[in-house]
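Deliverable D4.2, example record:
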Amino acid sequence: MHLGENWLFVIKIILYLLGLSVIGLTLLPFLRLSAWWIRVGEFPRLQIAVLAVLVALFFSFFAYPFSAVETVFLAALVFCIAYQFACILPYTPFYRKQTKKNNVPLPKKVVRILFSNVYIKNRKYEKVLRMVKKMNADVVLLAETDEAWVKALEPLKEIYPTMISHPLDNGYGMTLFTRLKLINPELKFIIEPVVPSIHTDAELPSGDVIRLYCMHPRPPIPMETGRSTERDAELLIVGREICRLDKPAIIFGDLNDVAWSRTTRLFQKISGMLDPRVGRGMFSTFPVKYPLIHFPLDHLFHTKHFRLVELRRLKSVGSDHYPIYCSLSLDKVAPHVQQPPEADRDDHQEALTTIRENLAVLEEEKREDEKVEKR
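Output generated by the structure prediction step:
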């Protein structure tokens, strides 16, 4: 080989490796397994799509004319590009909006929600306090709050008469502030005794009662359990509950999943909830320090009874997550002008099977742990 041919060979090998990585990350999530190295491909779909485009362009330039193998490789890249962009298309302004806008809401029927994963190691308390006071939301949820955070947040008691707090040192502490009247608030541990969620009814100034779910399930990363078992089960259990309630409900928090994942899409179908980001943008919230690999991990979903007043991603408060602010109006028109996702029999069966299988795994592990302790 001449020097030029050597360089061309090296470049093609690099492009092949990058392309095979793209193809692998695209295909792995089709396996219905909970291992993190399989589910990780669901997160960076935009980044995978952009990388696939670049690889395809450079490969077309350096490899033309193509051999049979190169043609198949390029066709696989084109499939990846089309599939990845199809997954994220709903979270762009080019898609039909799922939640309709209400430009003239009745003030007493509006609920303003602010939520933020403050990051347990973040000690910029004043930034968070200023943000909460500035936004003046009716409901404020702060995740990853430990004892130090709860103490620092005490000045907010002057603004919000109701506070529910469960500080933890494991990154799953949760604190809720609200000026709404809460009815039978519950601190629940759906899957694990160290991962809380808050479930409550809340009365709007109009007298209407809505249901609120504050969530922060485990992420499917190696530093945690290395799988999506706990997260998937928790989301789908709550989704089935919302479906059975058939009343105005909102779920919000750091759900540790992306909007376009199989689990989140199944959750939406089962619960019948709408996503105000659809047709508006991704509103990516994590990680703050690395803008090129942003993911929408912090979510708000609502039932068909609400329309959107305002949705914003706020400035950083020192956390690894951006805060989200959303204002919704409860109105009679909403159910007639917007269509929530619908689940068929297969969706319900998949959700039930996923819950049962995941709970069975957790129960088996619990028994094994008990055996080890007895030894």
